[in-house]
Specification:
This protein is mainly β and 180 residues long. Helix content is 8%, strand content 57%.
């Protein structure tokens, strides 16, 4: 960790942080000023080789809680081979019922993952692709997966346009073939 603390202005700056846990490596930078009621926060981070189930340890519960809930409940198994996140929070972002869309940008490349994309539908298994998150949305660009008995997904896009509004239609574009 390389950084500094500004006691007078209630600030902290980590120019670089890095750690390893098992096969997972993570690094990034962080600047924070103010208190919990009116923070100024900027963070960038990267991780590699993270088990998908470990996402819940790295994603704070209060940050885009609907996106976090969906991801930590519906995506399991496999590895996030590469993940990048950018967080930018200003004091005005703390006022509304939901965080604004632009506070979070994350991209997670997953391999051999199981995804429960819609309740009541069979899961996509052995999925490879990239999952994109914002403060209010989630989009998965799947390059390959198994679906149903013998179904092969050659490409799919699944878009949740508003995770804060239950009942918002999910957009799915699917190229599915039966393997013989």
């Amino acid at each position: 960790i390389t950084g500094s603390i500004d006691v007078e202005n209630s600030g902290i700056a980590l120019e670089r942080f890095a750690f390893e846990m098992g096969e997972t490596t993570a690094s990034g930078s962080l600047k924070a000023q103010g208190d919990l009621e009116s923070p100024h926060l900027q963070m960038q981070g990267q991780a590699t080789n993270m088990p998908v189930e470990d996402l819940r340890y790295y994603w704070p519960q209060g940050l885009s809680p609907q996106s976090r809930e969906w991801a930590t409940t519906n995506v399991r198994d496999g590895v996030a081979s590469q993940a990048n996140v950018t967080i930018a929070i200003e004091p005005e972002d703390m006022q509304p019922e939901f965080f604004p869309d632009d506070i979070l940008r994350a991209e997670v490349q997953v391999k051999d993952t199981t995804v429960e994309y819609l309740e009541g539908m069979p899961p996509a298994e052995h999925a490879d692709g990239i999952i994109h998150f914002t403060g209010t949305t989630m989009r998965a660009d799947v390059s390959t997966a198994s679906l149903l008995s013998g179904g092969k997904v050659n490409a799919a896009k699944v878009h949740f346009p508003d995770l804060n509004a239950p009942g918002t239609p999910v957009e799915i574009d699917l190229d599915l073939h039966r393997v013989t």
